């Protein structure tokens, strides 16, 4: 079960962790998504290809991305010895993979790309097909056609990232995707008529629906190969980008497009895709019926995303820098009127109070926490997450002496949370590192986990705990598996 949080205030928003938390709230609230670059480290296609054995029998590598890209699945074609040609084993495995993705409720967007530099997919494995008995050729082509149809029928958006050659069945696979992103140096064509055959994976049907019948006929009749710029010009590609030295510029642009899709309601996206696909095959009135049916599926759901309205509570507005919450309140957590003004009309609260490296004895953080909780009760705000030192997991005599006064105030913060009647989660991070989010962190109730956490993963956890249930009323340890 989750709660609906539309408005959230972050107390202590100008420290390193506080700024990251404001950014996380903005991103997860789907507000100003374009304003910040994703912190996750990208593994370039060429580097990843080198780390994968060429004997990969399935012919592709599947990745479920994490962090801000959670929900994006990438399917990397990886048969360098055949230029990613579609053979029997690849097609058989593709059936299984697409069936799994179809029923994966966490899947939001699929990006198909190549892990072999300079090629997307060369089409059917002609060497394998030449060795087949004549009786097997028809069923084999039928399986290719059906696998590409299964790709077309996936309920989630699909994007083909074409960084190299996409010929024959390779282009037909890309045509079955909802969108295509290509590099300027990519080469595309349905070249089957050169072999005295015709496209057999849906190319004669999908290409005319995308570029129009006249252009499609010209491309198929002439077996012409076009580059990325021409593909964009005729509407075959949604985007064209200049190729980079790693040979993966289309893949990077496809991930950006997938991130943009992630900012919107997943059920709404599925229903929109259903209405468009089904509507293309019928008359307008029938198509409107599909639209009406899809709309009825989403109107009553909590999937509709309106975005967090993020308020930052700070002492000094200038220290927010380029971070752009929707509202900024300048005040002091020790001033009850300031605090009440910030909490008023909010749905959730995140507390990231600090002393800016001042380790002297203090009650500022615990007193500020008391004021916040009091204001929450007054304004009927139920949910709060709070960042507190992991030294509370240590025996007090083992805490380094300079940190004992601060730890004592963190202890008072925790006791204040335990005694309140709000729905609280206390997050006790270990060493907070200035490094990209990894996403593979663990969270345990009342137990330490690891020795380090990225400040961006910490920020995500503080925001995520506002809408999850399993840690309510607990103090939690976080970190990466040892």
From TrEMBL:
CDD domains: BVR-B_like_SDR_a (cd05244), crotonase-like (cd06558). GO terms for biological process: fatty acid beta-oxidation. GO terms for cellular component: mitochondrion. Transmembrane segments: none annotated. GO terms for molecular function: catalytic activity. PANTHER family: ENOYL-COA HYDRATASE-RELATED, SD19268P. Belongs to the enoyl-CoA hydratase/isomerase family. This is Uncharacterized protein.
